[in-house]
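Worked example 2:
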Amino acid sequence: MIRHLPAHMMYRGQPTKWLDTIHHFSFANYYNPQNMRFGALRVLNDDLILGHSGFGTHPHNDMEIVSYLVRGELTHRDSLGNKGVIKRGEVQYMSAGSGLTHSEMNEGADTVRLLQIWIMPNAKRLTPNYGDRKYAWGGRINKLLHLVSPINGGADVQLHQDVNMYASELQPGSTLDLPLPIGRQCYIAQVEGSSVINGCTMGEQDAIEAAEEDLHITAAGTSHLLFIEMATDCTIA
């Protein structure tokens, strides 16, 4: 099963003067009961944050949150005393668990672009946790860079859910295969560029939902992709 989700069909909004966003799923002012989540993936927001602005201190609980930076620099501070800055291709993650507050700010002059991803955990009231990881860009050229895994799953970032995240940048004409056996599914975001996935042409900021089907990806020009792979029957708390 493959379902193509063109970017022009997604919700686009400007909730504040400093934020432009695309919501892949129902979020904030966008509500569609037919588009609440994909498996354990609850939120994927493609955000543009103007310079010297951002998300001030606000609370979270019982959610696994990953930020993937596409452009600029993002600064995180939280009530656990953590501070971190990530740049292009790097990741911040947070297990909100029993509750914490944090901020995500663009402290520079240039516009930040990030993918904000929320995963529903497999248990509630977990101990809150934060971290960030930096990756050499070359680790994703024409291959899958494993960003996120379940606990004890082998990636540097480990979340409380049966989910894996991968990033890849394919050079023009390069190909990549991702098997999805019975019981596995994947949400794919075309971050930059374009590609063809099992015959489906993906433009920039398009997405695909795929389940139990081996995927064959061919870059149509330089193609930057994010893969969120998970069980079809994830345990959700």
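The chain has a mean pLDDT of 96. The chain is about 0% helix and 55% strand.
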